[in-house]
Specification:
Layout lengths: L1 H24 L4 E2 L16 E3 L5 E3 L7 E7 L4 H17 L4 E7 L5 H10 L2 E3 L2 E3 L5 E3 L2 H6 L8 E5 L5 E6 L4 H14 L2
Parallel strand pairs: 4-5, 5-8
Antiparallel strand pairs: 1-10, 2-3, 4-9, 6-7, 9-10
């Protein structure tokens, strides 16, 4: 009995330490958007990367759309939680000039990302679905253009006119990001 109590006390201690460490090192969920001296959102940096089929994809080709640039990795647990939400948002708002642009940051590159995209299915509205938005193979230079990454996932919302309007470091809140997307879509309707 004493052994069980010791094990439980140890587990409680580990969980408490993890929660405190998480709280102490957590960065704010949303970063302030960089602004210039006139207090206007800054223009989004452009980049060109290869997609999973070796085609060039540049951020500028989405000008005129609201774009959610999502930096992720195949091994990232929070990314796997977020992907079904991104699939749903893509389905819901694609007809209104919105797209998610997934930037896969796996060190193994194409050899890790292509099989993941081809094989993985995510439960969305009770059905198993593939990722339905463009996926490009990212790199540190691209991440640095957005101020670097503190972890995965990291999402950056870009307005139709190409300005960064929101950044979320870590798992997005579905409701929060959907409201931000709707706000940008309404602003330009």
């Amino acid at each position: 009995m004493k052994r069980i109590a010791l094990i439980l006390a140890t587990l409680v201690g580990i969980v408490a330490f993890a929660l405190l460490a998480n709280r102490a090192t957590r960065i704010p969920v949303t970063r302030a958007v960089n602004t210039n001296q006139e207090n206007k959102p800054t223009a989004s940096p452009d980049f060109t990367l290869k997609d999973v089929e070796d085609h060039d994809v540049s951020l500028s080709q989405f000008k005129g759309k609201v774009v959610l640039v999502n930096f992720w990795a195949t091994w990232c647990g929070p990314c796997r939680i977020e992907i079904p939400w991104l699939i749903e948002l893509q389905e819901k708002y694609a007809a209104r000039e919105f797209t998610v642009l997934g930037v896969a940051m796996d060190e193994e590159g194409k050899s890790a990302v292509v099989p993941f995209v081809q094989k993985e299915r995510f439960k969305v509205s009770g059905m198993r679905q593939a990722m339905n938005y463009p996926i490009v193979l990212g790199n540190d230079a691209t991440a640095d253009k957005f101020g670097g990454l503190v972890g995965f996932p990291t999402s950056v919302l870009i307005s139709k006119d190409g300005h960064v309007v929101k950044r979320v470091d870590g798992l997005v809140s579905y409701d929060e990001i959907e409201k931000a997307i709707q706000s940008q879509l309404k602003a330009n309707d």
